[in-house]
Write a structure and sequence with these properties.
CATH architecture: Up-down Bundle
Strand order of the largest sheet: 1-2
Number of domains: 1
Number of strands: 2
Distance between the termini: 29 Å
Order of helices and strands: HEHHHHHHHE
Radius of gyration: 20 Å
Shape: elongated
Number of helices: 8
CATH class: Mainly Alpha
Bound molecules: protoporphyrin IX containing FE
Strand content: under 5%
Length: 196
């Protein structure tokens, strides 16, 4: 049916290199790299520039809110329903990693999804505890300040785990996930990949 073929060619995906598919939409990519920049600014300004620190921290927390909404209405792989898995699926995937049998996912794999949820929760908690420090109730209250610093340390550890996970998955499945998060494109699913 030549007519149908033509209509398919006109789709944005038609200009993709052979064997490649679009996975990360522009909102996801923009969100990710803006989050990296804002968290880095908040981190490195923490002890010298309060105005910059609080602004960057609020931007990071705001990005999480936007991403959660996009997780409900965004494109297929942006949607939380495609990558938020229960603890069993996450544990099974971690076990598969240990035995070297973990499947390749086009979207986030179950372990990556759990890490992403943790990263987003921790950034949101930094926004909340940071905000608390400027309210009359919690201003100058030691435990809030300590908690904020502690959560920031947890974030640093999680980011290292995130980078290790990205590196491991890139090596295991012979694809550069960082480039994919920049371009949005990935190699199409193979016969052994799960349906997602
Ligand atoms: C402050 C540091 C970082 C934070 C808080 C962070 C957070 C996140 C989040 C929330 C996602 C999910 C994206 C989405 O679905 O919207 C993600 C995915 C991803 N991040 Fe990061 N990230 C950080 C640093 C980095 C860095 C430095 C790199 C690479 C050099 C990186 C590479 C990736 C990749 C490749 C993915 C997609 C993983 C996959 O294919 O499943 N991240 N990150
Ligand atoms: C991604 C977001 C954020 C990160 C990574 C972050 C990280 C940090 C770190 C590492 C410190 C130093 C803690 C210490 O020296 O023990 C700090 C201190 C502080 N942060 Fe944040 N923060 C974030 C968001 C915010 C926000 C949104 C606010 C307020 C609106 C805020 C307000 C403060 C204040 C007032 C301090 C100084 C506390 C003190 O020592 O008196 N932060 N933050």
């Amino acid at each position: 049916m030549p007519k149908l073929a033509k209509a398919t060619d006109a789709r944005p995906g038609a200009h993709l290199p052979a064997g490649m598919v679009r996975v990360w939409d522009p909102v996801v990519r923009l969100f990710h790299w803006s989050l990296v920049v804002s968290v880095a600014i908040a981190w490195f300004s923490a002890n010298h520039n309060e105005a910059l620190h609080t602004r960057a921290g609020y931007v990071a927390a705001g990005l999480i809110a936007v991403r959660l909404i996009w997780g409900l209405i965004g494109s297929r792989y942006a949607r939380l329903s495609t990558w938020v898995r229960g603890p069993r699926a996450v544990l099974r995937y971690l076990r598969d990693i240990l035995t070297g049998t973990e499947a390749r996912f086009l979207g986030h794999n179950p372990a990556g999804g759990a890490m992403i949820l943790a990263l987003m929760t921790v950034v949101a908690a930094l926004g909340l505890t940071g905000w608390m420090m400027f309210t009359p109730t919690w201003y100058g209250v030691d435990w809030v300040t300590h908690l904020h610093g502690l959560i920031a340390d947890v974030l640093a550890v999680l980011v290292m785990g995130h980078l290790a996970g990205v590196a491991l998955a890139s090596l295991r499945h012979r694809e550069n996930l960082v480039v994919a998060m920049l371009t949005g494109k990935k190699r199409a699913s193979g016969p052994d990949d799960p349906a997602l």
